[in-house]
Amino acid sequence: PPGQMTPPDQMTPPGQMTPPDQMTPPGQMTPLEQSASSSLLNKLFTGVLSPPDTPTHPLLCKVIPPEQSIFGKTPRVKRRRTKFTPTQLAALEKEFEGCNYVTIERRKVLAAELDVTSENVRVWFQNKRHQRKKMMNNQPKDD
After folding, report:
1. Which of 98, 79, 99, 95 lies closest to 87, judged by CA?
2. Cβ neighbours for 64, distance < 8 A, ≥ 6 positions apart
């Protein structure tokens, strides 16, 4: 009946349909669904869980305590993608033309000049090398 949980021994076996008189009417939720729904809504409105498009979403920029996390796991903070300006890209491309690998010292200088982190410069060079290698492998070979 609606509003009550079905004991495990009275559950419909997998592969069989639930008789119509035992189904929850459309628009109504079982107690378990109501509990889960109110819990998620409570987290949403208390700020523990935010919609994905907001800057406070736990997977984008804040970590919530384990006791408030989903499925008992603390979500890791996801770093946002670095968007280089056309000026920064031109400088990185020019440097890459001279040498495919950048030394730590040169990387630090470039990072300071371009106002990005040394890690951003390192990853850009790494990605650029991978991109070039992929392009070379996709070109038809002359026999």
Report:
1. 95
2. 48, 49, 58, 74, 75
Please compute, for residue 2, the number of CA atoms within 13 A of its CA located in the half-sphere on the CB side. 10
Token pair, residue 73, equals 């796991």
Q: Which two tokens mark 90? A: 């031109």
Q: What is the pTM of this model?
A: 0.46
Q: How far are the Cα atoms of 9, 108, 130 from residue 24, in angstroms, in the given order?
A: 18, 64, 55
Give per-10-residue mean pLDDT for the chain (143 aa): 64 68 66 59 52 46 55 72 92 93 94 94 95 88 65
Q: How many CA atoms lie within 13 A of 66 on its CB side?
A: 2
**Spatial distance between the Cα atoms of 110 and 87, rounded to a whole number of angstroms:** 12
